[in-house]
């Protein structure tokens, strides 16, 4: 009988460990999950927008960037829709974050109508645009073969 008891205790311990690991994995995935939405979609989400972790992209409105220490306030624009954003991240905004740049923010949409970003990614649109004088965008190389 003692061998059956040991087998049962071992089995119960394995089940408890598996359940604990499953719970931790599930909660980790739920907390890191974010939904990508456009500004238009965000405005149409209603109250559900306030309960989810979201990612929103748009163009930075010229003249809207206001830096206050590590906090940055700015406005994103998509077509005719705008979204005020407050970024309070652990890192400073990237060098490419400036007027008319494309930005992607991740965070939460507050009840106050402001997007509270914890992450900010940006790229300078002019850096990736083709040159206007008709010249090739990159250096020309000759093949020696």
Low-confidence stretches: 138-145
Provide the domain count.
Answer: 2
> What is the rounded distance between the termini?
82 Å
Q: Within the CATH hierarchy, at the fold level, what is the topology of the largest domain?
A: OB fold (Dihydrolipoamide Acetyltransferase, E2P)
Q: Major β-sheet, in short? A: 5 strands, mixed, barrel
CATH hierarchy: architecture of the largest domain: Beta Barrel
The computed structural class is alpha+beta
Find the CATH superfamily of the largest domain.
Answer: Nucleic acid-binding proteins
Order of helices and strands: HEHEEEEEEH
> Can you tell me the overall shape?
elongated
Structure in words:
α2 (about 40-45) links the parallel β1 and β2 (about 55-60). It is elongated and about 75 Å long. It contains three helices and seven strands. It is an alpha+beta fold and about 140 residues long. The protein folds into two domains: about 1-35; about 35-130, OB fold (Dihydrolipoamide Acetyltransferase, E2P) (Beta Barrel), CATH 2.40.50.140. Strands 2-4-5-7-6 form a five-stranded mixed β-barrel. The model is unreliable at about 140-145 (pLDDT under 50). The chain has helices at about 1-30, 40-45, 125-130; strands at about 35, 55-60, 65-70, 70-80, 80-90, 100-110, 115-125.
List the helices and strands and how they pair.
Elements lengths: L1 H31 L2 E3 L1 H6 L9 E7 L5 E3 L2 E8 L2 E8 L13 E8 L5 E9 L1 H4 L17
Parallel strand pairs: 1-2, 5-7
Antiparallel strand pairs: 2-4, 2-6, 3-4, 4-5, 6-7
């Amino acid at each position: 009988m003692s061998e059956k008891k040991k087998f049962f205790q071992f089995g119960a311990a394995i089940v408890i460990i598996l359940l604990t690991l499953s719970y931790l994995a599930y909660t980790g995935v739920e907390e890191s999950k974010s939904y990508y939405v456009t500004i238009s979609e965000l405005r149409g989400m209603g109250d559900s927008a306030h309960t989810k972790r979201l990612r929103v992209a748009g163009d930075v409105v010229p003249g809207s960037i206001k830096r206050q220490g590590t906090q940055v306030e700015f406005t994103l624009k998509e077509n005719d829709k705008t979204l005020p954003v407050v970024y309070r991240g652990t890192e400073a905004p990237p060098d490419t974050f400036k007027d008319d740049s494309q930005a992607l923010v991740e965070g939460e949409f507050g009840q106050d109508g402001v997007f509270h970003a914890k992450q900010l990614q940006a790229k300078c649109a002019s850096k990736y645009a083709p040159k206007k004088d008709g010249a090739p965008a990159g250096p020309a190389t000759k093949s020696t073969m």
